Every structure is written in C-alpha cells, then in structure tokens.
Amino acid sequence: MTERIAYRRVYEETSPKDGKRVLVDRVWPRGMRKEDAHLDEWLRDVAPSSDLRHWYGHDPDRFTEFRRRYLAELRDAGHREAAAHLRDLAAHDRLTLLTATKDVDHSQAAVLAEWLGRKR
Q: Which InterPro entries does this chain map to (predicted)?
C-alpha cells in the first residue's frame, strides 16, 4: 500500500487524511445509512463478482486463490471500466478504499490497494 492509497472499514470514523472515499463492495454495508457513509463514490462494478465473493466467503485460507481470481476479474470486460476509473482516481488524489468486511487485510480493498500501488 502506498501513502496515497489506504483501505479500511466503512464503519470507521472519517479522517481529513482520507482523500476520496470509495466504497468497493458489491452490496451496501449492513446497518449503514447512505448519508452516514460519507462517500465520494460507490464503485460496485470494481468489486468481486457475486460468484467469487460467495466462493471466497472471507475464508483467510482461500485468500491467495481469491486474490489470483480477483486480479483476473479486474482484467475482464465487466470490471475493466470501473478498474480504469479507480486507477484514475488514485492517480489524482489520495484515495481510501472502503469495505464492510471485518478482516480488511483479507479483502478486495487490500487487493485493490496493492494492485493500484503497482499500476502507478
């Protein structure tokens, strides 16, 4: 993760250091009102496919394979436009990727932060 790209839970307090706040989950976070999320964008099309998300089930033992499959999805046509938009955001501003996942280090937000760090 670079200094310009961070990731964390959407339920945490906002910070002036957040920069652009982008939710990268396919489904809206449980129990959160939209006005309380303080988002700049909800980029659900960059999230893992529903099939991949269900297969993974946030099992840390599957994370390496999840990461490999998710990176392959980011190259697919269904994710390509959203991924390019996210790269553009990261190139112009500090970016905080948000997820509802409890284990953020084993989430798509962590994979995206690493991927964006390499792409710049």
A: YeaO-like
Q: Could you report how far apart the first and last alpha carbons of the chain are, in Å?
A: 12
Q: Where are the beta strands (DSSP E) in the chain?
A: 5-9, 20-23, 41-42, 95-99
The model's pTM: 0.91
pLDDT band at 1 (very low <50, low <70, confident <90, very high): very low
Residue type, 21: R
- CA 67/CA 105 separation, integer angstroms: 11
pLDDT in tens, 7-44: 999 999 999 899 999 999 999 999 999 999 999 999 99
- SS3 state at 100: coil
Query: Which strands make up the sheet holding 5-9, listed edge to edge?
Result: 5-9, 95-99, 20-23, 41-42
Q: Beta strand 20-23 with 95-99: parallel, antiparallel or unpaired? A: parallel
| Cβ-contact 45, 106 below 8 angstroms | no
